Amino acid sequence: MEYRKVGKTGLKISEISLGAWLTYGGSVEKDQSKACITKAVELGINFIDIADVYARGNAERIVGEVLKEGNYDRQDLVISSKVFWPMSNGINDRGLNRKHIRESIENSLNRLQTDYLDIYFCHRFDRTTPLEETVRAMSELVEQGYVHYWGTSVWPAVQLERAVGIAKTLGLHPPLVEQPRYNMLDRFIELDIIDTCQRNGMGIVCWSPLAQGILTGKYNEEIPEGSRGATTQWLRRELNPENIVKVKGLQEVADSLEITMGQLALAWILRREEISCAITGATKPEHVESNVRASTTKLSKDTLQEIEETLNNEPQTHPLYKAPW
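The structure corresponding to this sequence follows.
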């Protein structure tokens, strides 16, 4: 495993990390979750990414129990969670107002059975709360030792600039890491997010690097029964004939390099030095082992050119960046 710094900070995280979205505490039982986490740490993954809304708190709870039972040294791990989405029907149990942030961090720490988070993400931009209120609340968490660094997830470039500007003006802790969606089929962060983050010293930890499984090649022939493509709405935008043709072409590139399609997709993301890590999901230890191999897979200029010709796509703004309410 190789490691990279998170932006201008001194924090180092594994190039491949483990995420709990749609898995731990939900579709994956505790024993299987434990097997994946154990394998991840064994192979050098030190960054585990979670959110309070994943399985309505169960993902945090399961990860907390597994880490405690495994008797891991907390200082060896980088654990993150997120705040924004509703956790109940309460009118204030949502968004990035100070009340929700303060109550959410306490709940997340209790579920994870830890005294602090290494990174705490604002899970979307909140257009209903003054940005200064959010920046002050997150900065306070750093000052008080609840979190080491705070970041953002799926924020527009202009709001990243505003948050950093407010923090600098008021002498507060700025956001130091952004978590956007990024993969071969969804390259929107190449428009302005990467440049904005680099200019402001922010690291980038991207989610959905395998496009929820499309870039593993599992959907090249048909959608397997019980798979994510068959049971969720997340793949409808990209699981189309045009992309399947592209993935089949990419599979030929991977085969020529004697690596898996997934490893090719992850190595392609890590080609950019601005990326701190790719957050991967895993339902089996074997998935973890396969993903980790991408950390030491380097793609030549010729291979990267072949990939570009196969993709033949331009970065486009993602609908995730539209206001959620």
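The first strand starts at residue 3 and ends at 5.
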